[in-house]
Design goal:
The radius of gyration is 21 Å and the shape is globular. About 5% of the residues have low confidence. Helix 8 runs antiparallel to helix 9. Strands 10-7-5-4-3-2-1-11 form an 8-stranded parallel β-sheet. The longest helix has 25 residues. By secondary structure, the protein is of the alpha/beta class. It has 15 helices and 13 strands. A hairpin with a 4-residue loop joins strand 12 and strand 13. About 40% of the residues lie in helices and about 15% in strands. The chain starts with 10 loop residues before the first strand and ends with a helix. The structure holds beta-D-fucopyranose. The site of beta-D-fucopyranose has 12 residues, from loops.
């Protein structure tokens, strides 16, 4: 018997991203993105892996969509590749757009709502050579690219997400050096952060003008920092700085039209505001319809060194700095909680607190909340019966869905959940080493096998409850 059920309008889905699954990296006119380029730098990606073939989804999308339908998915979050649609950031490539058009048709034929993300980290390399996101022009080019995608797919897609996790494409990429383009510059990261937000706002304005009925939004990776010692002023300040860096740097301009002053004050040597031109914040705070929240783990922070350290750092030979310009001296700790293969603690209750906080402080009921990513990597193995008994992932999934039901019970509407990911794929700097999928991919044969978690998710979707 089902004990707890989801509201009738709650959507169950999964998520992927273009570079992580498509492959066909140089077919039909596509040219290098920053991830193609970055993957060739020795040591940038574990095992020198790359997305050249990935899950070969570009050629297997029809079967992949049938697999989604078999799981009972109501929606599917995917991203379009800027380098496919506008190779080298230049003219429109109709062959590239046609792929997405075929994919969308296939989804609709299978009653799966397409949930499109325009940017999941794969900037055309040619634009990086002109400064990438540190160059303000990139923001305007992004809005043009959004219009091109809309021209091809706007008749069939209602839900549009501008950016996925701009924290990663700014701070982790231009300062932390762990993601493409692999730079180590605070100033570039601040410029990138602002220009990404500007790109979001410009695209929202353009798409809104083209069609006021579209549902527009952005996806952020937000976090719930807890103090190691709640009575320590230093630890509470560490919480404030992490919150500013990960959460408020993005939420405040989008929903309040301003950058957090405490973040600016924490950076006496780096002037964020020199990148902000008059009118930018009005553009960035253009009204949106949906906020996507990506949540993977909790965080325990302090100003004292950690004994057990949370691992977020991919193996790499490149020089590294803390990807947290305003959070120098903050230490990350582990609680006594289960860990995933990423070394991330499993803390579902944090998701409830996060959604409630975002609703109460930012979105209210005017902007719909969706969990656009949540999932776990484990060292799955194929058992002698041919199955993948990923019991930990089953538990992870159930616990986080349960946390969403708790949120809804507390009066905060949540409208959907996208498990990350539909299938194992190219996990950025970790290559193919980390498996997040509900579906196992054998990279030698491209065979897909439903894990126990996929079967469990299918049952949850069918019952619409836990
Ligand atoms: C998120 C990314 C996604 C995937 C998961 C594990 O930060 O958006 O592409 O890598 O982490």
């Amino acid at each position: 018997m089902t004990a707890r059920t989801f509201p009738t309008d709650f959507l169950f889905g999964t998520a992927t991203a273009a570079y992580q699954i498509e492959g066909a990296a140089h077919e039909d006119g596509r040219t290098d993105s920053i991830w193609d380029h970055f993957s060739r730098i020795p040591g940038a990606v574990i095992n020198a892996d790359n997305g050249e073939v990935a899950c070969d989804h570009y050629h297997r999308y029809e079967d992949d969509v049938k697999m989604m339908a078999d799981l009972g998915l109501q929606t599917y979050r995917f991203s379009t590749s800027w380098s496919r649609v506008r190779p080298d950031g230049g003219d429109v490539n109709h062959k590239g757009l046609d792929f997405y058009s075929r994919l969308v048709d296939q989804l609709l034929e299978n009653n799966i709502k397409p949930w499109l993300t325009l940017y999941h980290w794969d900037l055309p390399q040619a634009l990086q050579e002109k400064g990438g996101w540190a160059n303000r022009d990139t923001a305007y080019l992004f809005a043009e690219y959004a219009e091109d995608v809309h021209a091809a797919l706007g008749d069939r897609i209602e839900n549009w997400t501008t950016l996925n996790e701009p924290w990663c494409s700014s701070f982790l990429s231009y300062l932390g050096g762990e993601h493409a383009p692999g730079h180590n510059s605070i100033d570039e990261s601040l410029a990138a952060g602002h220009h990404l937000l500007l790109a979001h706002g410009l695209a929202v304005k353009s798409l809104r003008e083209l069609d006021p009925s579209l549902k527009l939004g952005i996806t952020l990776n937000l976090t719930v920092p807890d103090p190691l010692d709640p009575t320590s002023e230093g630890d509470l300040d560490a919480v404030r700085r992490v919150d500013a860096q990960f959460n408020r740097f993005f939420l405040d301009p989008i929903f309040k039209g301003e950058y957090p002053q405490d973040f600016i004050d924490d950076l006496p040597d780096n002037d964020l505001l020199r990148y902000v031109k008059p009118g930018d914040l009005e553009i960035i705070s253009s009204p949106i319809d949906a906020l996507g929240v990506n949540y993977y783990h909790g965080e325990l922070v302090s100003v004292t060194p950690a004994t057990k350290v949370m691992s977020t750092v991919a193996p790499s030979e490149r020089p590294k700095r803390s990807p947290f310009p305003a959070a120098d001296g903050v230490h990350w700790h582990l609680r006594d909680l289960p860990l995933t293969a990423m070394g991330w603690e499993v803390q579902p209750e944090g998701l409830t607190r996060l959604l409630k906080r975002v609703h109460d402080e930012y979105t209210g009921d005017a902007v719909k909340l969706y969990v656009t990513e949540n999932g776990a990597a484990y060292d799955d193995s194929v058992a002698s019966d041919g199955h993948i008994h990923d019991a930990e992932r089953v538990t992870f999934l159930e616990q986080h869905l349960d946390a969403i039901l708790d949120t809804i019970e507390q009066g905060v509407p949540v409208y959907g959940y996208f498990y990350w990911s539909l299938m194992d794929n190219f996990e950025w700097a970790w290559g193919y080493d980390k498996r997040f999928g509900l579906v196992r991919v054998d990279y030698e044969t491209q065979e897909r096998t439903l894990k126990d978690s996929a079967i469990g998710y299918r049952e949850i979707i069918a019952a619409r409850g836990l």
